[in-house]
Design goal:
alpha+beta; 4-stranded antiparallel sheet
């Protein structure tokens, strides 16, 4: 896997009540990822960017909702999320300051 590809696999961390709960309870972190990302690419990207050891990765595809924009029917974009399970003793802290 090329490092250029790995830097573009992760879009953003998912920050919600559910993601906070699974981080505390199961030592997992949720990320939004590109539509064609594989489990191996997500694992390699997290290990490269955050210098942690990954135990497993689960991928979730969520279809966009159909909505109306005024009279015009439309659809929100599809979303692909990855739940990354970290090995014991590992953690990712998004709140720490980057220097």
């Amino acid at each position: 896997m090329k490092p250029e590809r790995l830097y573009n696999v992760l879009i953003a961390p998912v920050v919600s009540e559910k993601s906070t709960m699974i981080a505390d309870k199961h030592n997992q972190v949720a990320f939004k990822v590109v539509q064609d990302a594989t489990r191996q690419e997500v694992k390699a990207a997290v290990e490269l960017l955050f210098k942690v050891q990954v135990d497993s990765v689960q991928i979730l595809n969520r279809r966009g909702k159909e909505k109306k924009f005024g009279r015009t029917p439309g659809r929100r974009g599809h979303l692909r999320k990855a739940y990354v399970c970290l090995k014991p003793g590992q953690e990712i802290n998004f709140a720490e300051e980057v220097k």
